[in-house]
């Protein structure tokens, strides 16, 4: 089987903790072809969809992890699986990749499904599941924000398209910076997500990876000394995590929706038993999770992708 990974430039990847790289290693181990494609590598020609790719040989080592062949152009249908694994933000370029990849039809299999990627904003989409999420306001209106802040006493304010913990503020009622934080975030992302502050965040943010609607594993991210944010990108550490009945319930509620939208692989964030976001663009944390579970989770993902691509 041949897998194409649409990724950011290979030299920008921190391969030792990169989920896409873990998938490439496993695909290669199973004897599949691994190919790399960058932004702009998709063309829709009158003859059909074509990809500009480089065949990759990958090594799990810090020095020269990628050995890449010359660029070559091939029909998209020469490949079995396309992994959309470019980092957020979800911008017009990302959106255009999904539009073009929608033309692939059934071959190659595109993961996650372009239609699902277009439908799910990781934080806004999650907010509809009010039974399992903290009270959440999405607004550009300052009066709405102040009312919500009065009602809840402490809130988290974040952009609609953020990732890695960027621009996530805690604001408490009476804070003289409250209005400034809100205005700044409106300027940043148009709309702002205002969410009840969950004190349980001090105990960590659980990342649950979900493969075809089933829980694959979990890891607990815990903030560093000088930051409230639990993201690895903000200095959070990786810790072992167990799956609770609340986690099972969250995944059970999301399962039919994720399946309908063709979300093959998702990363769900849970704080204090509440759903915070559903990551679908390029879910991460696989390598950290493998360390704690001691399981080859990448194998389960590649096996499932191979089964899905062969129509099994
Ligand atoms: N409702 C909340 N209550 C407490 N802390 C939160 C809340 N929402 C987010 N956080 C903190 O901010 C971090 C990043 O939030 P998240 O919504 O997952 O955005 P990102 O996409 O940037 O990861 C979380 O790991 C957590 O530490
Ligand atoms: Mg998060």
From TrEMBL:
Keyword Transcription regulation set for record: no
Pfam families referenced in this protein's UniProt entry, alphabetically: GSH-S_ATP, GSH-S_N
Domain of life: Bacteria
Entry's EC annotation: 6.3.2.3
Tagged with keyword Metal-binding: yes
InterPro entries: ATP-grasp, ATP_grasp_subdomain_1, Glut_synth_pro, GSHS_ATP-bd, GSHS_N, PreATP-grasp_dom_sf
UniProt cofactor(s): Mn(2+); Mg(2+)
Entry GO terms, CC: cytoplasm
Pathway where it operates: Sulfur metabolism; glutathione biosynthesis; glutathione from L-cysteine and L-glutamate: step 2/2
Catalytic activity, as annotated: gamma-L-glutamyl-L-cysteine + glycine + ATP = glutathione + ADP + phosphate + H(+)
Keywords for the protein's UniProt record, in alphabetical order: ATP-binding, Glutathione biosynthesis, Ligase, Magnesium, Manganese, Metal-binding, Nucleotide-binding
Family in the record: Belongs to the prokaryotic GSH synthase family.
Name of the protein in its database record: Glutathione synthetase
The species this protein was found in: Turneriella parva (strain ATCC BAA-1111 / DSM 21527 / NCTC 11395 / H) (Leptospira parva)
This protein's encoding gene: gshB
């Amino acid at each position: 089987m041949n897998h194409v990974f649409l990724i950011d430039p290979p030299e920008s990847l921190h391969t030792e903790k990169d989920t896409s790289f873990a998938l490439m290693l496993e695909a290669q181990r199973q004897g599949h072809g691994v190919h790399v494609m960058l932004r702009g590598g998709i063309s829709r020609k009158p003859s059909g969809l074509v990809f500009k790719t480089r065949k990759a040989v990958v090594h799990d080592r810090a020095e020269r992890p990628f050995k890449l062949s010359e660029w070559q152009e091939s029909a998209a249908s020469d490949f079995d699986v396309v992994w959309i694994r470019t980092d957020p933000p979800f911008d017009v370029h990302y959106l255009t990749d999904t539009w073009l990849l929608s033309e692939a039809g059934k071959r190659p299999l595109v993961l996650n499904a372009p239609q699902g990627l277009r439908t799910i904003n990781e934080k806004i989409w999650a907010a509809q599941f009010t039974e399992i999420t903290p009270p959440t306001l999405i607004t550009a209106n300052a009066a709405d924000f102040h009312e919500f802040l009065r009602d809840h006493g402490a809130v988290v304010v974040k952009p609609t398209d953020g990732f890695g913990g960027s621009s996530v503020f805690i604001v408490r009622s009476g804070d003289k910076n409250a209005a400034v934080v809100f205005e700044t975030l409106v300027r940043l992302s148009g709309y702002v997500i205002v969410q009840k502050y969950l004190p349980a965040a001090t105990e960590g943010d659980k990342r649950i990876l979900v493969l075809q609607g089933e829980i694959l594993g979990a890891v607990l991210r815990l903030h560093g000394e000088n930051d409230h944010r639990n993201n690895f990108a903000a200095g959070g550490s990786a810790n072992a995590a167990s799956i609770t009945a609340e986690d099972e319930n969250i995944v059970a509620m999301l399962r039919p929706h994720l399946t309908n939208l063709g979300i093959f692989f998702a990363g769900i964030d849970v704080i204090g038993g509440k759903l915070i976001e559903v990551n679908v663009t390029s879910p991460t944390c696989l390598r950290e999770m493998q360390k704690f579970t001691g399981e080859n989770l990448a194998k389960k993902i590649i096996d499932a992708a191979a089964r899905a691509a062969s129509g099994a």
